[in-house]
Amino acid sequence: MKSRIAPYLQSAPAMLWLALFFIVPLLAIVSISLMTGNSIDGYTLTWNFAVFPDALNEYSAQLGRSFLYGGISTALALIAMYPVAYWIAFHGGRRKSIFLFLLLLPFLVSFIIRILTWQFILSDEGIVLGTLKDIGILGENAHILSTPVAVITGLTYDALPWMALPIYVALEKIDRDLVEAAGDLYASGYQQFRRIILPLSAPGIYAGILLVGIANIGDYLSAQILGGPSTTMIGNIIQTEYVQNGDYPVASALSLMLMAALLLCVFVYARVFGTRTIQEYA
Q1: What CA–CA distance (Å, rounded) separates 66 from 68?
Q2: What fold does the segment set 58-281 form as a domain?
Q3: pLDDT in tens, 72-98
């Protein structure tokens, strides 16, 4: 009898934590999304399912922009950090931990401080544009802030360590004897990379894409600080509807649709690589 009850008792704290901090809030968001009313007179549960297609129709551009910016910034982070992770894993030697620490060091600073720093760097008279204007490469009216370039730059920069770390873990797990054996069989460096290293590091790549993509698609501070009205993302709309407009049903509906889209990405990853790789690399 005790052996049958023991697994349930052991999992009870985790299940209680999951219920209190995930299931209950999720049910609350679902119920709020189906309400009608306003922040002054209050809200009533009317099972208003029309809020979902209405919100999607009204803010489809912002939702699409979020996936576009998130996808571009994720791809740029992958292109930038795969070589870095590869070099640390295969050529870092005894100083791998030092290189990883240096990689993470800038991100010990507050996220908001880092975004504000990029706002200064990309400002019209900042380090980048100011220098290019002084040497005559750009005209006086050139600007980067409030453009997609500024938002994607902020998203990409913040994603760098979260892309590098899972790729590094995957590269570290590759058996070096496989690479040496390929070299003994006269495989070129490119062939070793394409046939051995890249396929075996694929779970880390996709784990990095998953981590970075989910965070960047739902981000709103980068677009709020570095962007403008034409670069609004879905996170900005949710924040505006909830904080400024007090339209809790619309904000909840948008949050649920965004969460459903991101969970679909997680489901696809789990189907392709399995849930174990999420625990190992993510």
Answers
A1: 5
A2: MetI-like fold (1.10.3720)
A3: 999 999 999 999 999 999 998 889 999
